């Protein structure tokens, strides 16, 4: 899979995740927040919390599951990026003193149809 296809798969996954999260009562306030540490896919709020959301999307299961791409190192990276967001957006952060890291893992079929979407809450603990 080339970089263009990876980006479009990632974007499709982020769109699906955002739609799913909105239905669950999340309010998405930022997408693709970038720092020198990397990029956060989605940032949202729910129940008085600021939620930093990593989205992993794969086509098929030939090369493993999306969950396998989220390890301790990845969670630490997400938390560093989250700190950068908090420092750059003090007004928003002050409204939401509680924070959490979630992951949305998506598997698509070869035709980009949704096969599976799983939401893991508060993975940063």
From TrEMBL:
<dbReference type="InterPro" id="IPR011335">
    <property type="entry name" value="Restrct_endonuc-II-like"/>
</dbReference>
<protein>
    <recommendedName>
        <fullName>UPF0102 protein UV74_C0013G0589</fullName>
    </recommendedName>
</protein>
<dbReference type="InterPro" id="IPR003509">
    <property type="entry name" value="UPF0102_YraN-like"/>
</dbReference>
<dbReference type="Pfam" id="PF02021">
    <property type="entry name" value="UPF0102"/>
</dbReference>
<comment type="similarity">
    <text>Belongs to the UPF0102 family.</text>
</comment>
<dbReference type="GO" id="GO:0003676">
    <property type="term" value="F:nucleic acid binding"/>
</dbReference>
<dbReference type="InterPro" id="IPR011856">
    <property type="entry name" value="tRNA_endonuc-like_dom_sf"/>
</dbReference>
């Amino acid at each position: 899979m080339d970089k263009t296809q990876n980006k479009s798969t990632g974007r499709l996954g982020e769109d699906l995740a955002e739609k799913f999260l909105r239905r669950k009562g999340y309010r998405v306030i930022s997408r693709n927040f970038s720092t020198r540490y990397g990029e956060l896919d989605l940032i949202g709020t729910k129940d008085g919390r600021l939620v930093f959301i990593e989205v992993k999307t794969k086509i098929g299961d030939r090369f493993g599951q999306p969950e396998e791409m989220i390890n301790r190192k990845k969670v630490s990276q997400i938390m560093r990026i989250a700190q950068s967001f908090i420092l750059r957006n003090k007004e928003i952060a002050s409204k939401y003193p509680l924070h959490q890291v979630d992951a949305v893992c998506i598997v698509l079929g070869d035709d980009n149809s949704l096969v599976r979407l799983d939401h893991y809450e508060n993975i940063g603990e």
